Amino acid sequence: MSPRVPTAATAADIRRWTENAQVPGPHRELSDPAAILIAAGFLGPENRDVVVRRQTYGLALAVLPDGFGNLRRLQRGIAQLEAQLANPVLPTMVRSGLQNRLNGLVRRRDEARKQIVLGKGVYPGGTRGVRRERRDGVYLEMAARERLFDGLLHTPTPDVNSGGYVRRAGGAAFGRLAGAVGGLAMRAMGPQVEQWARDAFTDRPVQVAPPVPQYMAFVDGYETLLYVAGEYYDRIQGNPAWRSDHFDVQRSQVNLHAELAEIAADVVALRSVRVDLDRSLRNGGFDQAFADHIAAKEHELRPVWTQLIGRVQALAEVAHVMDSAAVELRLLDEYNRATTIDDRIVELVSRSGHREISADNSKLLTHQVRAGEEQLRIYRDVLAGNIARISPAGALGPPTRLPQRYEPEQPADEA
């Protein structure tokens, strides 16, 4: 591989990222196609295939102007406000302010839902157009669009927990104050409470020194793995080498859109089973036989997690090969350009009887071009092996432990 390109992440690296729920590097959002394909993991197989076909055929899917990362942050803010409003001792004035803010965020979410579900200008409006898309297997039904939007509310987004801390702290402080001094003292402190409320409800940027090295934080290991898969998908799709004629055969061997959607579906399913196991253990763990049964089922899930890490690591290898191939293609382009210039020099120099000078240069450039083409052939061979590992059958490895558990009582929209 090209020494100019950093080495690919190993399975151990990806496992460590999921365990810590952190990915190294500056803040990066997933692209709209990656977010949609990950959200397709919340759909059933038939509707998921429709989303994949639309992406494969280049058919549009509804997107948001601000991106799906902001939609995830919006949903997180709604969940945080709802949690604050659940405080039974929250002062009336504070509750009113929080409720108004929640209503505003819910309206924004409803507007986003309309854009995604109705898909004005994206999905056909007439009966004939709907029938044609259904016949071609690319029509996403209204119920599936609703489910897709619910999945987009959980788009893997870096540092989604970093916002809204001042508002959460303000609400908690009001709750403690109300419990301590009662309603009479709250009325006596009216002006001060109003000022606190204004501070609590106002977004204020918090100046935080960037960590060294920089990391992107996620809710847990499941979201981390989804983000890493989407990040490598974006790197491969955005690489000019992947779209070049040199890798036509390799592109025909794998559908990256389908692979990302299937990885997402498996992660979502694994998470759901894990939550159910935790809930069952919490409710019936007092019986040792039942607890042993749950432990055995959990052990059966470990190869699934290993397989998922292996499939994502295969994507990392593909992205690495493509980065290296892109370097070689740029060099080949420069060599070809130099060869063109050299041909012009040949014509000029030959008039003075010094043609052999330019001929030597041509031989050198030809050797360099052939070396670059040979390197691309090596990349194609390596890529073929990496593509084979993306599929579930080639990704199995030794069992390993699952990431940190989800708490079953945690609301789904907070995850």
Task: Give short descriptive properties of this protein.
415 residues; mainly alpha; 1% strand; globular
Structure summarized in a few sentences:
This protein is an all-alpha fold.
Structural class label? mainly alpha
Order of helices and strands: HEHHHHHHHHEHHHHH
* Multimer state: single chain
Strand content: under 5%
Number of helices: 14
Which spans of ≥5 residues are poorly predicted at pLDDT below 50? 164-189, 352-370, 407-415
Supply Rg.
28 Å
Shape call: globular
Instruction: Give the rounded overall mean pLDDT.
Output: 76
**Major β-sheet strand ordering:** 1-2
Instruction: Let me know the number of strands.
Output: 2
Q: Kindly report how far apart the N and C termini lie.
A: 39 Å
- Name the helicity range: 55-70%
The biggest sheet amounts to:
2 strands, antiparallel
Summarize the structure in words.
The chain is mainly α and about 425 residues long. The protein has a domain of about 220 residues. The protein has 14 helices and 2 strands. The chain has a two-stranded antiparallel sheet. Helix 2 crosses helix 10. The C terminus is likely disordered.
